[in-house]
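Service request form, structural biology core

Requester: graduate student, group of Dr. S.
Request type: structure prediction, single chain
Budget code: on file
Notes: please return the result as structure tokens.

Sequence provided:
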Amino acid sequence: MDIPFEPIVFGYKVNIHLILEYAAFFIGFRYYIYLKKRSQDSISSSNRLSIIIGAVFGAFLGSRFFGFLENPIFSFSPEYVVQLLSAKTIMGGLFGGLLGVELAKKIIREKHSSGDLFTFPIILGIIIGRTGCFLAGVKEFTYGKQTTSFLGMDLGDGLYRYPIALFEVVFLLVLWGVLRYFQTEIKKESGLLFKYFMISYFLFRFCIEFLKPNTFFVLGLSSIQYLCILCMIYYQKTIRNFFHAH
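Core staff response, request fulfilled:
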């Protein structure tokens, strides 16, 4: 299979990345509904809806804001405006969604943790989306630097690069198994599953950013890496408790 993967249907090239991006949202949400029906949710349906709305708006704003910070160049050209409106990052979406949820919970005065039920649907959605990124090759900025190692792949530009999106899919599959074991074998406080997911994923992304050909740095780190540090600070109490318990 050639990368980028562009199947032809009825004489037209199919944007497989866009299809999988929409599929990630749809399948992830359907999986969430499935899990919700099988669980004893301590949060009422109306409050859960308010939390979802907060997550959606927070994720939208966060993904755009941190997407812009990946390459914060100001211009008033039409091409730049289009690029600015389309700029987004899953990292900003996750952290923005987290803040949106916390704000919504304060408004509706919901005290129960809401994250655990979202954990596996989010992971599933990211896996599907990153599969689309991998199949898009260098058309999406999820590829890595050039390399001569055995890990390199031609992603469509004739150069051997680290397949960052593929690495992420593998990591998330492993993380899924680890968190599933944690969920079934260890009884912990509500919300801890989601916190461990966020800490693990953001730590992974901090490390993998060193393999990406970023162009904008502050003190040697990309904007995504600073977001990862911000996430670690946000969850510093959970991290300390984990090491104290072990």
